[in-house]
Amino acid sequence: MLAIARGDPKRAAKDATFVTFVLEQLGEGGRFRARGMFGGHGLYAGEEFMGIVFDGRLYFRVDDASRPDYESRGMRPFSPGPRMTMPRYFEVPVDVLEDRRTLVAWAERAIQAAPKKSAVGSPRASAGAKTSRPETIGAASSTRRQRTARSAR
How confident is the model at residue 6 (pLDDT cuts 50, 70, 90)? Predict the structure, then answer.
């Protein structure tokens, strides 16, 4: 269930212990799971990606409604490197992390903030994004037919 982070074995053990703690706090009969990714862990509720565990910190997905709760507590967005910030994920305050009921409530809000997968699996498709693919395929097929007709002459 837990993938160990690469690199320093002590850090990997510490990270795995923290991920285990987070999952135990969330409880919910195995509803939540973690997958190793990019030196940290992605946190899922079912198929919804809703959080990140990185370097001993928990970050939840936020939206316009939940972001002020994090900002008012002085929490910062996830920043895996000096020049990269992910403003849709904010660090969960320690007091929230330590209170199981509150943590589960905040996790539910993170799930609501996560993009929903469509039947095709693309979050963009569920948001009603237009694609030009069918038109492009049709145009390519039409062009192919024209070339074939010319070469047959």
Answer: very low
Whether pTM exceeds 0.85: no
Q: How far is CA 99 from CA 12, 94, 95, 105, in A?
A: 25, 9, 6, 10
Structural domain contains residue 119? no
> For every residue of 65-127, which 3-state class applies, written as one string?
CCHHHHHCCCCCEEEEECCEEEEEEEECCHHHHHCHHHHHHHHHHHHHHCCCCCCCCCHHHHC
Domain enclosing residue 134, as ranges:
124-153
Give me the amino acid identity at 7: G
Are residue 133 and residue 110 in the same domain, yes or no? Answer: no
Are 80 and 149 contained in the same domain? Answer: no
Residue 4 included in any domain = no
Q: Reply yes or no on whether the pLDDT at 118 is more than 50.
A: yes
Please state whether beta strands 57-61 and 84-91 pair in parallel, antiparallel, or not at all (unpaired). antiparallel
Shared domain check, 130 and 103: no
